[in-house]
Amino acid sequence: MEQNQDSTLFEMSLDQTGRAHLTEAAKWAKFLSIMGFIGCGLIVLIGVFFGSLFNTLSGELNRNSPYGDMPTSGGFGAFAAIMYIVIALIYFFPCLFLFRFATKMKTALAANDQETLNNSFQNLKATFRFIGILTLIGLCFWVLALIIGLLGAATGGSM
Questions:
Q1: Nearest one of 93, 103, 117, 119 to 26, comparing CA atoms
Q2: Are 84 and 46 a contacting pair, CB within 8 Å?
C-alpha cells in the first residue's frame, strides 16, 4: 500500500478556536513565567538574607557564650545561601523556556509564521522536559530516602 505524503493529518491548520486557545495559553504562560522570574529573585534575596542572618547569629552566640570560644557552624550560612541560589538557578530555566514559548507564540499567531510557531512549541517541549527530569530526580531522592529510612528502622537506628 502506498503512503500518501500529502496526508491531511500532517497538514493541520489552526482554526479560530485553536488560535484563541493558544493566545490565551500564551498570556497565562507569560504571566506564570514573569511570576517565576520574580520568585527566582525572591529566592536569591531570601537565601542571601538568611545566610548573612545565620552567620551573624552564630557569631553573636559565640561571643556571648559562657563557655568561651565555642566552635560554631559559621559556614552553614554561606552553604544555605549557595543552596538557595542554586535552587533559584534551577527554577529560572523552566521560567525562561515558558517565557520564550509565550512571546514566540504571540509573535507566530500575529504574523502567521510557521517557523516561529514551531520554535514556540520547541520551548514548550523544553519546559515540560526540564520539569519532567526534575520530577524524576526528585522521585529518585524520595525512593532513596524511603529505603534509607526503612533500613534505619529495620536495624533499630544503629547503622
A1: 103
A2: yes
- 52 near 93, Cβ under 8 Å? no
In 73-113, which ranges are continuous DSSP H helix? Answer: 75-111
Give SS3 for 15: coil
Of 57, 50, 99, 91, the residue nearest 74 (C-alpha) = 57
**Could you report the per-residue pLDDT of 55-65, keeping only the tens digit for each?**
777 766 666 65
Question: What distance in Å separates the CA atoms of residue 157 and residue 134, rounded to the nearest whole number?
Answer: 30
3-state secondary structure of 55: helix
Q: Which residues, in sequence order, are CB contacts of 126 under 8 Å at separation 6+? A: 97
Q: Are 48 and 81 in contact (CB under 8 A)?
A: yes
| Torsion angles phi and psi, residue 74, rounded to 5 | -65, -25
Contact 51, 84 (CB under 8 A): yes
**Per-residue pLDDT tens digits for 39-51:** 999 999 999 898 8
Does the predicted TM-score (pTM) go above 0.85?
no
Query: Residue 30 corresponds to which amino acid?
Result: K
